[in-house]
Amino acid sequence: MMEDKLAFICGGIASQARRKLRDGGCFGLPPNRGRVRPRTATVVAVFDFLKQGQKAVEESGQSIVDYVKKRAEEDIAKVNAFNDGLQKSRERLAQDLSAILGSITTDAELEEALENIEEVLITSDLGMDTVDIVMDDLRAEATKERLRTEEDIKATLKGTLVRVLNEKVTSTFARLERV
Questions:
Q1: Using CA atoms, how far apart are residues 164 and 168, in angstroms rounded to an integer?
Q2: Where is each Signal recognition particle SRP54 helical bundle domain found (predicted)?
Q3: Number of structural domains, the chain?
């Protein structure tokens, strides 16, 4: 009797398994019901996916190139505008200094010219530290009576400005390298 029950149960399980396999389902998966997908469709889909990915990379690469070109053009325009502004400042500084230095004949005129030079340098946005150093050098040279002509003043002014500005640039780069 026990064997009959066991055969009935096993037979029932076996028949269910045969039915599932026949319908295409297996171990909890839904049955296929006659819809068979060819394996080539899956392979083609993978290649389509790869092609789409490649196309997206090419498009993003092109957009990066376009961005870099646009940014470079903007930067060049900014640098050109900055250089134009510096050129105007240099010309204005040269004109103002020429007007001041045009007619120095006495020590009183030299002292007044030095005060006017200081004003011009301040309005030229060189910075107060730079102007103070330049004016100290000019006054020291005037005291030593080395500044007698317009050319002497221009040469001393130019040499001092170049020296001070080079020192500032060098110290700025040194600070940036430490960061």
A1: 6
A2: 82-165
A3: 2
Q: Are residues 121 and 161 in the same domain?
A: yes
Element (H, E) at 75: helix 39-101
* Assigned domain for 51 exists: yes
Structure confidence by residue, pLDDT tens digits, 27-58 = 555 555 555 555 555 555 556 666 776 777 67
Structure tokens at 116: 């006017």
Is position 67 within any domain? yes
Residue 178 has a CB neighbour count (10 Å cut-off) of 6
Tell me the residue type at 68: V
Q: How far is CA 132 from CA 41, 94, 103, 117, 118, in A?
A: 81, 19, 24, 11, 8
Helices then strands, counting H and E runs in the chain, come out as: 5, 0
Between vectors from CA 141 to CA 135 and to CA 145, what angle results, nearest 5°? 135
> What confidence score (pLDDT) does residue 8 get?
46
Domain shared by 82 and 137, yes or no: no
